[in-house]
Fold this sequence. Notes:
This protein is mostly helical. The chain has a single domain (25-115), classed as DNA polymerase, domain 1 (Orthogonal Bundle). The chain has five helices and no strands. Helix 1 (26-44) runs antiparallel to helix 2 (49-66). This is Integrase. It comes from Streptomyces cahuitamycinicus.
Amino acid sequence: MQRMERVDLPGSARMVLVDNVVPLDPEPQLFEAMLEGWARQQRVRYLKKETIDRRLALVRRMSRFSGQYPWQWTASEIEAFIDDLRSGSHPIKVSTARGHLGRGLDPGCWTPETLGS
């Protein structure tokens, strides 16, 4: 059987995590490494720091709202989050909600393949 060689994709979490170290609670470390890798991808695309910070804050906010990590999100969690943002005293606009879906709130963004694990 041919062994597949692992390739570290640009921005993958494995490029931030330390080799040969197994954390006691790996998910928080993977989450932070994933966000750092994603921020790095955005910096090399010359996005402004403020833009990157807003996107990271959005992903963290969604994670707090759902109580889950991005690789665990389903469409229903994202729908509940967007619905929550659209209600209340300062509802977001439809265009803002659509923009959020392209800025890290797509469950397909956070698969093992995109995380490099």
